[in-house]
Amino acid sequence: MDDLAIRTERLRKEYGATVAVDDLNLAVERGEVFGFLGPNGAGKTTALKMLLGLTRPTAGTAWVLGAPAGDWRMRARVGFLPEHFRFQEWLKAAEFLEVHARLYRIPVETRRRRVGELLEMVGLSRHADKPLRDFSKGMLQRIGLAQALLNDPELVFLDEPTSGLDPLGRRLVRDIIRSLRARGVTVFLNSHLLSEIEITCDRVAFIRRGRVVQTGQLEELLIAETEVELRGVGLSPALARDLSFFGQCLHLDTDRLTLRMATEEKVPDLVAWLVAQGVRIYSVSPRRLSLEDLFLRLMEGEEAG
Amino acid sequence: MMTPFIAWLTLQEARRRKLLWVGFVLGIAFLAFYGVGFYAIYREMNPHLSSNSLQRREAFNFLVMTGLYAANFLVVMVSVLISVDTISGEIASHSIQSIVTKPLRRWEVVLGKFLGFAALIVGCVMFLVGGVVAIGWLISRYIPANLIQGMALMVLEGWIFLAVTLLGGTRLSTLANGVLAFGLFGLAFIGGWAEEIGSIMRNETAVNVGIVSSLILPTEALWKRAAYLMQPSVLSSLSLTPFASFSMPSPAMVVYALLYGLAALIAAIYLFERRDL
């Protein structure tokens, strides 16, 4: 058995004629914050449900923390914040955490303490005796997050954790994810909010129509391509053919050039070449691909193909 | 083993969501109306009743059985209504997701819910049937025969409805589940009367309708057996009461009903285990 936090092989889920997840292969290392990115309806939640044993795969296999996905004993080491959740609204906040701590089989001595700690962590200590039915959406999201961390999990699944949260709440989620990473907890984050992923994740997988279309270290994916915008005098369409040596020409007229290059390293060569061609250069601004650019490119590119 | 905890949680939920409170208040109202009505009739009737104990028993038996008949219907309603939303509603609201992703097995959840509600049904039968019988005794000093057996049969009837409703909840929406449960109840009810009238008229088809209906849902047969047992045998055998059964369901029917409830519970567990949530 390997030491991965999550591994899936050819995981597939069909609902009737609809294929929600198609041939999903994932390998998530222990201790990393893994972002699972895709538009709404791409199959993110379905994939996550299969990992948790909520849904049975049509085909393929999945392991979580070395156990087959859905193994009930394994779930003692896992935390989960569902996407659309309404918890038992008739419970008060502290009672709700008590109940879930009991479901996690946390011994009675530690239960009280954990409940207090987590209420504190998500900033709800003042509302410990308030029934959940009186909670706002954001407060529910916080208590849900607390619920997912009660058992000090080795792996946490967060499905759209910042939905419904105000900026303070979003920062809280980010801080919690960071502190989890610092403690070596693996975090599997489902999201379509790119800024959230960009700030918190080590590695991402882009999923589209149930398939992973790209996966890798976020840093590497983003520097893999650079767009250079250059302003100068003496540019002419005649240069276009030779410019293709440096990269893909996106825009070219007499005073402006936009070029997509595989790496920033060739920017000085480009400038030197243009100067040699008699172009007077006023500004060169390399712009790294933003996650949004990458996301749109991956999603749209596939659409066209 | 999380089953006892889930059962406890189920009872807590019933308490917190004011189910117990509303049930108790309405139960008291039911018993109050029954008591007042019984007393008024008793006062009117008593001077005209001879000291003939058979005649007296016939009259009081009728009054008590009327109350028990209504109580039986309430037990059925309660059994269905308390459990109709429990699984389907939690699936619809997704709150089930945060439970079944905990380190427990799904059957523990279904079984725990069953036991929690089953305990509530026992309480409900004791409260309503006990109340009716107590009122009857206070006013007329009449007490039905085989009370414990009768109550046990009514509890079993409630449990069967509970198991069927839990089973429906694993696959159906709350609304469809309610329609199913009460549809089955109506079917068993009408089948029961068809059998009753059919046996008086010696109409075999009508009797068969009743038999088939009690195989589809054996609850009405349980009530009939309970009603038969709780009445003085001399009255039942003379058919001096509208609650007499011309064809008292046999002990085999009770065994069938037990197996039926068990099968429904097992099916509920099986379907819930396999269901995508």
Describe this structure in words.
In chain A, the strands form three sheets. Chain A has a six-stranded mixed beta sheet with strand order 6-7-8-3-9-10, sandwiched between helices. In chain A, strands 2-1-4-5 form a four-stranded antiparallel beta sheet, with helices on one face. Chain A has a four-stranded antiparallel beta sheet with strand order 12-13-11-14, with helices on one face. The two termini of chain A are 38 Å apart. Chain A is built from ten helices and 14 strands. Chain A is elongated, with a radius of gyration of 24 Å. In chain A, a hairpin with a 2-residue loop joins strand 4 and strand 5 (67-68). The model of chain A has no long low-confidence stretch (mean pLDDT 87). Chain A has 305 residues and is of the alpha/beta class. Chain A has two domains: 4-220, Rossmann fold, CATH 3.40.50; 225-288, Alpha-Beta Plaits (2-Layer Sandwich), CATH 3.30.70.1150. Chain B has 277 residues and is mainly α. Chain B is 81% helix and 0% strand. Chain B has helices at 3-16, 19-45, 53-83, 86-92, 97-100, 106-140, 147-169, 174-201, 204-216, 219-230, 233-238, 251-274. Chain B is globular. The two termini of chain B are 22 Å apart. The model of chain B has no long low-confidence stretch (mean pLDDT 89). The chains are: A alpha/beta (305), B mainly alpha (277). At the A-B interface, helix 2 of A face helix 1 and helix 5 of B.
Kindly state the mean pLDDT of chain B as a whole number? 89
First CA to last CA of chain A: what distance? 38 Å
What Rg of chain B, in angstroms, do the CA atoms define?
A: 20 Å
Number of strands of chain B: 0
What can be said about the biggest beta sheet of chain A?
A: 6 strands, mixed
Largest interface: A-B, 30 and 21 residues
Classify the beta-strand content of chain B into a percent band: under 5%
Rough outline of chain A: elongated
**Order of helices and strands of chain A, N to C?**
EEEHEEEHHHEHEHEEHEHEEHEH
Query: From the 3D coordinates, which CATH architecture of the largest domain in chain A would you assign?
Result: 3-Layer(aba) Sandwich
Based on secondary structure, the structural category of chain B is: mainly alpha
Spans of at least 5 consecutive residues with low confidence of chain B: none
Oligomer: heterodimer
| Main β-sheet description of chain B | none
Which structural category do the helix and sheet elements of chain A fall into? Answer: alpha/beta
Q: What is the alpha-carbon Rg of chain A in Å?
A: 24 Å
N- and C-termini, Cα separation of chain B = 22 Å
Instruction: Work out the helicity level of chain B.
Output: over 70%
Overall tally of structural domains of chain A: 2
* Poorly predicted sequence stretches spanning 5 or more consecutive residues of chain A: none
